[in-house]
Structures are given as structure tokens and as C-alpha cells.
């Protein structure tokens, strides 16, 4: 489970602090005007199956990384993706990050906008990118959006209070949800958090649920738009003001569904049903199942399988076995998973969600290593399944890469 980077959480007291690196998926139309950004992508040597081409997309001039792996941060036509880097010109200002869009294959890129890094970022199912931005002093914090097909930022909603986590948006763009630290609300010496739902049609903001251990909710709107998938870090403790004391307690983390009127529905994952979740989960759109990894222990050890799929009211089914999976991604078509094996050589594994048949896409490293959170690969597939976007610090600095996925590889894992 990725512990939230405290610098990524924007509160009244921390809005002007520099935020750590993250990244994203999106689009670009023209070469950036700044010379150091105009360099072409270069082929990278990598241990990968025949036909897999790896391209290094960024250089060490920037602090950049991929946003996250749960969703495809790319345009609806898969031509462009968006990533985030440090705003070198304003790294100590109110918008310490830049969002850059890049065109796959041509590697042309342009600066989309500036904003608050990963906090509040979301991508819709049709490739519209949402993010947070501050304008003039006293103008407050704004939710922005840009269709990655045209790259034009637009103001959407002025927020009543800062937000806390990565966000989500419904398919019809009506609802936007994000975590929020509830300033002044303390329970038994712990900071209280909420899941905030914003109606983008009426402008109404509502706290759907509260708790001291939903500090890392990873909200994800269901394919039908009727509920949110929420991560529940049972027993976690954050001190008043936002300092983490523990991410989870002895029970470990689990998941629940949250209706738009605030009703919680527990899911049969995490103790006592399985080992605790890793903190990485996502919707499988067509089947409305949830893909997740759990701690690779006991009945969910690698030889038995710790990658599972589940739905409301049912026990999880194992998707595949043989790896110690951590971060997970499900393709938009719902047929393919991409997950990382959290042991050397830290393989990126591609497979069928239905049958579990899999293959190795990439070997990331040769030996055991400690990776900072920004260096996590956070790999995702473009919607057309032709590219995998990921981070790596294998050469030292954290850089952004793209791997071309041969159609034959996809066809093979999907064969019955």
C-alpha cells in the first residue's frame, strides 16, 4: 500500500508547500518551446520479450513521474497521455507542478497547465483530465478539466475547502469525489477525514462518510456511477493537523462500497475473508468486478495467488498465481491486467483477467532494492492496449518510459 505523501495533501496549512513528484497520462500536440523539453524520445535497452520496444521519454532535467496505475491517463483515442513534473519556474509557489501532454510514437509534447500535483487528479472514462489549481491570491482553489484530445483547460468548480487524496469522476461528468481532511474534527486524539462528493451540475459539496481511518480512500466511481469504491485503512492513525502515526492497524486494510447517499457496503476482502489488501485496486468495467492484490501470505502466498477479483456479495476469485503482486491495473476493455511482481527482478506481468494466463512484459531491476514512492513503476496500459506507460529509476534519476506492446503478446494471453 502506498502511504500518501504528506506533501501531496493540500490543506489550508500546506497549500503553498512544494509537492512531491507524481505523474499522469494524457496528450500533447506540439513540441515544448523550452529547449531542454524538446529532446526526442530515445530507445532504451531492456530485458523484455521479442517485439517489446522501450522508449525513454524524459531526462534528468526534471523531477517527474507517472501519476498512478489504477486508470489510463490518456485520451479516448489512445494517441496522447499526460504526466506530471515539478514546476521549475514556480516550485515554491501555489502551483508547484506542471502537467505535460505527449503524443505516443511522435513524442511531441506541450505544457498543458500548472497545478497542485497529484492531489485531486482524476481521469474520466472518455479521457478528460481533472486537476486542482490556484489562481490569484484570494481566488480560492479551483477544480479544472481538460479534454486530452484538444488540450484546452477549463474552470469547473471553485472548492469550498482543500482536498486530500487522488480523485475520481463519473462517466457523465456529473459527480467528482475526493478525500478531504476535516479541519477541526478530532476523535479520540485522531484527525477525522471524509469522502467529499461534488455535484458539478449544482455545485453542491457533501461529505458522504467520515472516519479517522479513511485517510487514504482511493475513491473510484463504479462503472454505473451509482457508488464509490473506497479503501478503508482500518486502525490507521493520523494526528490532528495531518501527521501520520500509522497507516493501518492490526486488522489491516479492506474495501467497501459507498453509495451516493452515504451508505457503506462492506466487501468480502481483507480480514477475516482474505489477508489484508495491499492498497491497490481498480474496477473491471465490463464485468463490474474489482481487481485487487492482497498480502501474499498463507492461503494467498505467491504459489496460490494473491491477485483476486470480486464483486458485491461474493467471495473473491483468484485471477492468477506465481507472483507476489502489488500494484494493479485493469484495461478499459476489462480483458487484460497489468501488475508488478514485488520481488526481484520486479517483473511487469501482463495477463488475462478471465483465464489468468499471463506473460512477463518487462523485467524492471536485477536485484533487491528499496524504491522511493515516486520510483514505483505505476504501470498502466493505453486504452488500445498498444502501450504501457511507467516510471523507473534504473539509471539513477526517476524517468518516464513507454513500452510498445506487440499485438501478438496480447492475443497470446487472451487465447483460451
Strand content: 35-45%
Radius of gyration: 20 Å
Contiguous runs where pLDDT drops below 50 for at least 5 residues: 3-38
* Overall pLDDT metric: 88
Main-sheet strand order equals: 1-2-31-30-29
Largest sheet: 5 strands, antiparallel
Please report the total strand number as a whole number: 31
Helix content: under 10%
The chain-level structural class is mainly beta
The end-to-end distance, rounded to whole angstroms, is 33 Å
The best one-word shape is: globular
Secondary-structure map:
Elements: E1 42-44, E2 53-56, E3 64-65, E4 80-86, E5 97-103, E6 109-115, E7 122-123, E8 128-134, E9 141-147, E10 153-158, E11 167-169, E12 175-187, E13 190-199, E14 205-211, E15 220-221, E16 227-232, E17 237-239, E18 243-246, E19 254-259, E20 264-266, E21 277-284, E22 289-294, E23 307-310, E24 317-320, E25 325-330, E26 336-341, E27 347-352, E28 358-363, E29 380-381, E30 387-392, E31 399-404, H1 407-414
Antiparallel strand pairs: 1-2, 2-31, 3-4, 4-5, 5-6, 7-8, 8-9, 9-10, 11-12, 12-13, 13-14, 15-16, 16-19, 17-18, 19-20, 21-22, 22-23, 23-24, 25-26, 26-27, 27-28, 29-30, 30-31
